[in-house]
Amino acid sequence: MNSCPWTSELKTHLKNLVEMEPISPLPELLDVLESSEKLPEAMQPDAIRTPLERHQRQALTFMHQRELGWALNGSRPDLWEYMGNNQRHCFVNHVSNAYQEEEPEDFSGGIIADPMGLGKTLTMISLVASAAPLHNSVMDADGVVTSATTLIIVPPPLLGTWEEQLSEHVNPGSLTWCRHHGKTKFTGTGSYNEISIVLTTYHTVSAEWKSHGEHSPSVLFSTRWRRVILDEAHFIRNSSSQLTRATCEIDAAARWAVTGTPIQNRLSDLTTLFSFLRVYPYSNRKQFDADITNYWKEGNAEEALKRLKRLASFLILRRRQNTIQLPLRRDLQCAVELTGTERAMYDEIRNKTVARIDDILYESSDDTRPVEYTNILQQIEAMRMVCNLGLYYHARRGLRDLTQKNSESWASIAQQNFDFQGEMGGMQCRYCFAVADTSARLLNSTQSQQSLHLSKCLQLICSDCISKSQPIDCGHSPSCPFAPVYLNPTSLEETSLSFNHLEYVTSLPQAVKFPPKITALVTQLKALPPGVKSVVFSTWRTTLDIIEAGLNQASIQCLRFDGTIPLKERQAVIDRFRQEATPSVLLLTLSCGAVGLTLTVASYAFIMEPHWNPTLEYQALARIYRLGQRNEVTTVRFYVRDSFEQRVMDVQNSKRQMAAVLFASQDSTAGPSLASLQNLRSLL
Ligand SMILES: [Zn+2]
Ligand SMILES: [Zn+2]
């Protein structure tokens, strides 16, 4: 700490206001999938103007090899190998050591699973640029035409990211690309023949799969593509959803899945990817279970792990984050103190909340608990607001007592409840166990109109299951009322506590000081040398509003990037931040800024409040700490000392999942259990 002039200087500035502590790094999960093999480096493709890093050229080698199909002749280690002499012929499976006489179905493709920030998008663009020059489609012996075009399927917010990366890295004129999305869609087979890359979204694939038929044939499903690439492929982890089934139906000569998190919750996440890849025999979940998962279940974890490692070494490329030499990164947490008045306000809400939980623990019935629970979550949000906004938060304007409403009002608070639970770790569909969490939500379309249904006893039913199973039920008899809820990413950045903060901010006398977090942030930004750029993340726009006011007062210019900026203007904001010397501060909401953006022009990142789900914070930090970063990086997380926020940080630092703490013994049908309420109480 003392070796850093910036923080030590800061410490003397703000002796009692700010105290910085370094955070110990989290261990890299998914270690078991890591690739150890030293791959040779492929040539830099002519069409790519950005010099590729070593690990990217190695990835190219891996992908070129995998696109040749199985190495049956043993030229390199592979899943399948031909063994034979004059008497016998067979094919050996090097994962299970089983053999068969029949030649295994060929397979071309694999999983690129490098962690965030290693330049996977450029790597995949290089594959398209290097594997085969653009030529006309090829017809095979069966009369099936393979187009020369690569189809890339991405979550909606990443369409722009891909186009931007293509423009940035590809030599003009050497590759062509276009969107198949929204109003820009092609019809008729072969209409893409002259184009190297077609970009589309999972939702387009899903929608066209449904309507595809004789009368309205879809180009996506009547083409055999040169290759198909899934970006953020964990998007299809729910194997029974329409979106997943549609994506798996895409026909292509080579199939690639790109994801930083090939395993999110369970080993079975991998089997969904294998079934997309159509890799024999592990596209069959039963075979995967028989050869790997069952060893685990039978207590032979060592053998299961060995087999999984072997399988991964053939099909999955995953390198460590430290494969690339990024500049040093310092992670700091910054505790701030509330002032006397703020503390009193905080304590008042806190004590009310605790008393309320105690009431529920002793008095409520299963019937009223969910509504009470929403009330409590709302009060916790109020506590978080005080931590961010201090006296700018005006409690009495905001809090509505939800229990005062009659039972018909479930529809009016269901979304709020869903948002809270999504933030804390997600909810699972009662029928198919699909997870609806914040990470999934951020990759969703901003205009997603598809609803899920949440029952008053907090049972969730996903949109796929709603269309398949009517009537839906929660498990109670008679069934509790259901209300539609939406996976709309931007609703997260609005606080549910409805009050007109802008009006309130402007009505405040000048004498009211900015809240301590904002003061600490402004002080730190002021102390930065000129030319240094910073990004500031908060969950809520309200916080960004007050920060903006604080920065204005300190004559620091800033840019905003949040859900109120129209989609078509967002790129201009990012371009300006990257290209112009000022403003040097970019304010972002987590829901708009945590995925897809490359902000390596900044070397400081500030996160205004701890999040229930730390993954979201890592995603946000990866915007600046990634390939292309040339400067030392400092990340600062703010929290209020001796508050609920500090407890949340403690849980995060102990590497436990907040969801596991909160929903430890949640009964699958009874909504929030008493135990989870007790756990929640312990955080307050
Ligand atoms: Zn479902
Ligand atoms: Zn129920």
Task: Give a brief outline of the structure.
One of its GO terms (biological process) is DNA repair. The protein has 684 residues and is α/β, with parallel strands linked by helices. The chain has three domains: 5-27 and 326-335 and 513-653, P-loop containing nucleotide triphosphate hydrolases (Rossmann fold), CATH 3.40.50.300; 31-69 and 106-319, Tandem AAA-ATPase domain (Rossmann fold), CATH 3.40.50.10810; 342-492, no CATH class.
Rg on CA atoms, Å: 27 Å
CATH fold naming of the largest domain: Rossmann fold
> What portion of residues is helical?
25-40%
Compute the separation of the termini in Å.
30 Å
Mean pLDDT: 82
Overall geometry: globular
Tell me what the structure shows.
- The protein has 3 domains: 5-27 and 326-335 and 513-653, P-loop containing nucleotide triphosphate hydrolases (Rossmann fold, 3-Layer(aba) Sandwich), CATH 3.40.50; 31-69 and 106-319, 3-Layer(aba) Sandwich (Rossmann fold), CATH 3.40.50; 342-492, no CATH class.
- The chain is built from 24 helices and 24 strands.
- Residues 1-19, 24-29, 395-403 and 664-670 have low confidence and may be disordered.
- The structure holds zinc ion (2 copies).
- Residues 429, 431-432, 434, 462, 464-465 line the site of one zinc ion (ZN).
- Residues 429, 431-432, 434, 462, 464-465 line the site of one zinc ion.
